[in-house]
Task: structure prediction
Amino acid sequence: MTAPPADIFVPPVLVVDLRGEPCVLRRDQWSPHLRRDPSRFRGVVLHQWASHVGTEARLRAKYKGEAGALARRGQHAPYAISCGVGLVTGEAVVSLAHPPERYTYASDSACAEFVSVGIMGRFPFEEDDRVEPRDTALTLALFAAVNRALSEAVAMLPGDGPWPLITHRQSINGPRDHVLCPGEASVVLAVASSAVRDGLLVPDPDYVVLPDWGRPWPASWRRHLNNERCAPSVSSGAATSFDSLVV
Ligand SMILES: [Zn+2]
Result:
């Protein structure tokens, strides 16, 4: 089974909408002179932050708790939406960090027509190489955060769907881009999300945006697919258990 059981307890998620606030990214991380056109959006692309995510006590006080402080960190990452779990409280948070029109370096070129979701944490390319605490644990709170983030991303897409769900690996722009992003764990969580189970987002593991650079999913990521919910070209791969992977 790829999906969590129907009676699973999904922890609450704090959603913080910061889309109306001024951009705090560094000038080399975005352009105020370019805008994306949300009417051309055609899918969702998954990323990982590739780092652990702490918060300063000063900011936890300022933003009334760790989750609020964590949401603010989302503004310093280039993804339209960031999601994750506080290290202190274990609270799940979704940060609607940037308006969809904003042109950041995670929304350029091959990624321009996709809503980007960045999962806060560090995840190995393949789960077999996981080492904790170096890598971020897969928890129900993290699942809850990713689950909600993908629903929020769907709400930003035009039309009725379904829309493809891809990974950064598939939408890289050149030889030094992040072929390891977002890692197998991100795929495990996303494939189990309600947006995928309900057929709104359809994993498309073979699609690449720029054929010269994009890479399809490796076999390890495909183990988590339920083929009924994939793009029609997908025919192989046995789904593995969600709850055997989530602690
Ligand atoms: Zn990425």
